[in-house]
Amino acid sequence: MSSTTTDTASSVDVVLIGGGVMSATLGTLLRQLQPEWSISVFERLGSVAEESSNAWNNAGTGHSALCELNYTPQGTDGSVDISKAVGVNEQFQISRQFWSYLVENQIIVSAKSFITPVPHMSFVWGEDNAAFLRKRYEALAQHPLFSGMEYTEDTAQITQWAPLIMRDRPAGQKLALTRSLKGTDVNFGALTRLMFTYLASTPACTLHTQHEVSDISRNGTDGWTLKIRDLRQNTQREVKARFVFIGSGGGALSLLQKTGIPEARGVGGFPVSGQFLRCTNPDLIAQHHAKIYGKASVGAPPMSVPHLDTRMIDGSPALLFGPYAGFSTRFLKQGSLMDLPLSVRADNIGPMLAVARDNWALTKYLIEQVMQTQAARIKALQDFIPNAQAKDWELVVAGQRVQIIKKDAAKGGVLQFGTEVIASEDGSVAALLGASPGASTAAPIMLNVLQKCFPTKMPGWTDKLRQIIPSFGQKLARHPDLCEEVFDKTTQVLGLTQ
C-alpha cells in the first residue's frame, strides 16, 4: 500500500513515523479514542509494511509462548520459570482482542487475510532435553492461558502430529514434543496494510510514503517541529505536531537521539540480521502444517531459536527454517552501513563498550554464523528434517533487529532482547526500541504508549478501551473464566477453529 497524497498540512495533532505495525496499531487506537485528532504518517519507503512488518522479514508470526522455549528458562535447580511465557501469552491475548474488535466493527475487512490457525509445537531430542520439556509442560499445562497443551514421547504420536520431522529419523533417539492447537500464524504485513487502508480513509488522517523525517526538535512548549523530505520531489518542509511517535523499527534510535530528551541518554543499539532457508518444493510444504521450535544453541540470542515454520503469506503456504544470524551495521534492511557508527555518542559509548566486553559468547556465535556454509545450514536443518536436501531449500535474508543497549550501574551497560517504550517526561514524544516479541504484542505495547504519554486522558478513554479490549485492566492469568470467555470469543470472531 502506497500513498501519493498532496496534503501539505503544517500542523497536526499526531505524527506517526514509520509505516509498520506499531504505527498502524497506535493510529487505529487513537482514531477510536480521539476521532477528531489530525494524524499524519510518514514512511521512508514507497509502501507501508516493507521493513520489519513485512511477512518475509518478520520472525514473530504469532508469538504466544506456546512453543518458544526461550520464554521458559530452566534454573540451576532444574525448575522451569514460566513467568515470561505467561506474560507474553497475556499480551498476545490483548492483541487478539484488538484484532477481533477491528473485524467485528468492520474496520478491517476480514481476518482470513492475516491470521490462520497453525499448531504450535516444541520438539527436542536427548534425555536431558526431554526431561526439561516434560517439566515445562507440567508447569504450563494447568495454567488457564495454556490449557489443552499436549505432551508425548511416543514416536508414533509424533509421526502423526508432525510427519515431516520423523521421516528417515534414526531409531533409538529419545524424542519429546508438545503440541497446542491454540497456535496461529499472523501475517503482520497484511494486517498493517489493512489498518493503514482504514486510517487513510478516515477524516484528518494522511499517509505519506517516500517521505523521510530528517530531524526532530522542540517547538517551544507546543510540541515538536519535524523536518520532512519528500523523496519523490526532493523537497523539504516542516510539520509541527503536539505528539510524535517514533515507530520506525531499527531507524527509531537515531530519531530518538535527535529529540535530545534526557530519557534517550545512554541508549545504544546492536544490530543482528537474520536469514532463513525457504522451501522451494511444494510437496514438502504440503506435508508440514505447524510451527515447531527447538532449543537455541549455547551463546545464541533469543531471537535465534531454531524453528521449522509454516506460514501463510498472501494466501499461499510457505515453509521456512532458521533463523541463521548474521551481522550488518545497518539498522534497517534498507538502511545505511553507517547506521551503527553514527549511533555512537559520548553518552552511550561507555554502555556499548561494556556490552562488547561482556558478550564474547554472542560475538563468537555471530562470527560462526556469518562464516557458515550452505552445507552447514542444511546440516542444522537435518536435525529437524533428517532427509532434507539442499536442492529443496534457498537462503533468504530476513529483516534487521536492533537490540537495546542501556546503562547499568553494576556492569556499565547491558544488552536487552525485549522491547521498550522510551518517552519524554511530558509524554509529547515516544519511541519503541527493541525486537522480540515485537509485532505479536503490538496492541499491549501501544496501550503502554497511551498510558505513558496520555495519563490525563486515560480515565476518559477507559470505557472505550474496555469495548476494544474486554480484559483491559485485568490479568487473564488471574481470571480463568474471563480467560476462557475472551479466548472463545476471539477464536470465533477471527475464524480460528482448527
Automatic annotation (TrEMBL):
Q: Which family does it belong to?
A: Belongs to the MQO family.
**The enzyme's E.C. designation:** 1.1.5.4
In terms of PANTHER family, this protein maps to:
L-2-HYDROXYGLUTARATE DEHYDROGENASE, MITOCHONDRIAL
Which domain of life, per UniProt? Bacteria
Q: Which reaction does it catalyse?
A: (S)-malate + a quinone = a quinol + oxaloacetate
Output the InterPro entries linked to this UniProt entry.
FAD/NAD-bd_sf, MQO
Mind listing the GO biological process terms from this record? tricarboxylic acid cycle
- Keywords for the protein's UniProt record, in alphabetical order: FAD, Flavoprotein, Oxidoreductase, Tricarboxylic acid cycle
Q: Which GO terms describe its molecular function?
A: (S)-2-hydroxyglutarate dehydrogenase activity; L-malate dehydrogenase (quinone) activity
Q: Which residues form the signal peptide?
A: none
Q: Pathway it belongs to?
A: Carbohydrate metabolism; tricarboxylic acid cycle; oxaloacetate from (S)-malate (quinone route): step 1/1
Q: Which organism is it from?
A: Acetobacter okinawensis
This protein is called: Probable malate:quinone oxidoreductase
Please give the cofactor(s) recorded in the UniProt entry for this protein: FAD
